[in-house]
UniProtKB/TrEMBL annotation:
Superkingdom, natural source: Bacteria
Organism of derivation: Litorilinea aerophila
Entry protein name: NADH:quinone oxidoreductase/Mrp antiporter transmembrane domain-containing protein
Keywords: Cell membrane, Membrane, Transmembrane, Transmembrane helix
Residues that span the membrane, as ranges: 6-28, 40-60, 80-104, 116-133, 139-157, 169-191, 211-234, 246-265, 277-299, 306-328, 340-362, 383-400, 420-441, 466-485
Classification via InterPro entries: CPA3_Na-H_Antiporter_D, ND/Mrp_TM
Length: 526
């Protein structure tokens, strides 16, 4: 089976064109503009998901796909690259975008007149571009595209808490972007190239001090964007402020772009530092898990609890990265494969949880867990309560959900390589997560109803009910399917992990020419 590499442009171009097509309808007034923007977005995310699935099937057969834009060879032109990890992330993003568009149709209020759907498509374009970028500068560019779109989505509605949360979000992310850009400048000034395959060839020849500086700057920048300890504080202060459809998409997706870049950059460009800094990476993972779960137990609104759990759960993914270079009886790729599996689980389940929690908040007009303001939803909205319960148990790692198999895989990897402390931390955090989810369930769904159901609530209107519940049910069903069919899913994760760890295969697929003067070598007399 062969696939035309031009397909790699589609996940970037399609959302961009659809977003641009939807914007002019704003001049027609709210009713017509909202209707057409919704239709365009629904078609675009469906087509985007179909293309991602094609790429997934192709790459999980062991293939890599490379597109040299304008037929310029690497590193002179722009390289777009896809392997198993890229395709998995594109597919997950496509699933979340598809679910979010329909959820937004069922729950969105006046924000529809503010170009919600075009902004969502611009964000989708930026995320897809980050997953496909084959050079580090265009990775930076796509990060900035998704940052601009996400800031606009965070502040839709213009409420005071949204503006405060949005400013906190954008300022701290811009600081991380500045560090990222500084690292790019150091790289280019030293080795004379930004193509990632070319960098994989040349960076090992650069001075050790330069390698350490760049690896450190990128670790700080990507850790901030991923919400890792101690750079997570922007996340719980901003994710609970926008409309639930925005929170759900952000919570399931945006921090995972930072995790993806860590998975991509370090095995390719800094494999020695994965071994040398293993203790540091595992310590960051452990403190991230603990900080997130303790924070979740200390706050009292449903979306802030779930926002802190985003922090806690990305710690598990970084645990997989920390175990990537540890070789045990299970094989060299097992730890990273377990991290990828956990990434798949979390993106699906966290989006479902935030959608269900957001719907509950809209139903009663409050997300507070104090004074039983959310209580009684089990009897009044049993389907919503049922879906929330299954997603919560999956997040906590209760079998047979995807959370159970992904946490078990990470635990196996840690025990197989003798990392007992991080194994104990992951078990303890799993138990605390279960306690937090039980507390959240009790306060939000049990008991007697205190607050009335709002007449404008989406589940009170039959024509909007399925638009709200369908995407949540789809994601919960996917989580259950991953748990029940964990063997094939783990094999796919292992294929992706092996491709990520195969530096020579990446370089050969991109095939960069080496006819550029290596200034770093010349300056240091090497």
């Amino acid at each position: 089976m062969t696939l035309n590499p031009n397909w790699l442009a589609a996940p970037i171009v399609l959302p961009l064109l659809a977003a641009a097509l939807g914007l002019p309808f704003t001049r027609w007034g709210y009713r017509n503009a909202g209707r057409w923007q919704r239709r365009i977005a629904a078609v675009a995310v469906t087509a985007n998901l179909a293309i991602a699935l094609v790429l997934l099937v192709y790459t999980l057969q062991g293939h890599r796909l490379v597109l040299q834009m304008g037929l310029w060879p690497a590193p002179f032109g722009i390289t777009v690259f896809a392997d198993g990890l890229s395709a998995i992330m594109l597919t997950l993003t496509g699933i979340l975008a598809f679910a979010t568009v329909f959820y937004a149709m069922g729950t969105l209020d006046q924000r529809a007149r503010m170009n919600y759907f075009p902004l969502l498509l611009f964000l989708l374009m930026g995320v897809n571009g980050a997953f496909l970028a084959g050079d580090i500068f265009n990775l930076y560019v796509f990060f900035e595209v998704l940052l601009m779109a996400s800031f606009a989505l965070l502040t839709l509605g213009g409420q005071r808490n949204q503006i405060n949360g949005g400013i906190r979000y954008v300022v701290l992310n811009l600081l991380a972007s500045t560090l990222f850009l500084a690292a790019v400048g150091v790289i280019y000034g030293t080795v004379g190239t930004l193509n990632m395959a070319h960098l994989a060839q040349r960076l090992p020849q650069a001075p050790q001090s330069v390698q350490t500086l760049v690896a450190g700057l990128l670790l700080i920048a990507f850790s901030s964007k991923a919400g890792l300890f101690p750079l997570f504080f922007w996340l719980p202060g901003s994710y609970h402020t926008p409309h639930p459809s925005v929170t759900a998409f952000f919570g399931g997706l945006l921090t995972k772009v930072g995790i993806y870049t860590l998975f991509r950059i370090y095995p390719l460009l800094f494999p020695e530092y994965l071994s040398r800094w293993q203790a540091l990476i595992l310590a960051i993972a452990g403190f991230t898990m603990l900080t997130g779960v303790f924070g979740a137990m200390a706050v009292n609104t449903i979306r802030r609890v779930l926002s802190f759990h985003i922090i806690s759960q990305v710690g598990y993914m970084v645990m997989g990265l920390g175990l990537a270079m540890s070789v045990g009886q299970l094989g060299p790729s097992f730890g990273l494969a377990a991290g990828i599996l956990y990434l798949v689980h979390h993106m699906i389940v966290k989006t479902a949880l935030l959608m269900a929690g957001g719907a509950a908040e809209i139903e009663v007009g409050s997300g507070s867990l104090l004074r039983d303001q959310l209580s009684g939803l089990l009897t009044r909205r049993p389907m919503l309560a049922f879906l929330f319960f299954f997603a919560a148990m999956s997040l906590a790692g209760v079998p047979p959900s995807s959370g159970f198999v992904s946490k078990l895989s990470l635990l196996q990897a840690a025990l197989d390589t003798g990392h007992w402390l991080i194994a104990a931390v992951s078990l303890g955090v799993g138990l605390l997560t279960l306690m937090s989810m039980v507390r959240l369930w009790q306060k939000a769904f049990f008991g007697q109803a205190v607050q009335p159901i709002y007449p404008i609530a989406p589940l009170a209107q039959p024509q909007r009910r399925w638009l709200t519940l369908f995407p949540i049910a789809l994601l919960v069903a996917l989580s259950l399917a991953i748990g029940l069919f964990s063997g094939p899913v783990f094999r796919w994760s292992d294929i992706a992990a092996r491709q990520v760890l195969d530096r020579e295969g990446y370089i050969q697929a991109v095939a960069p020419t080496d006819q550029i003067e290596f200034l770093g070598m010349k300056d240091h007399g090497e």
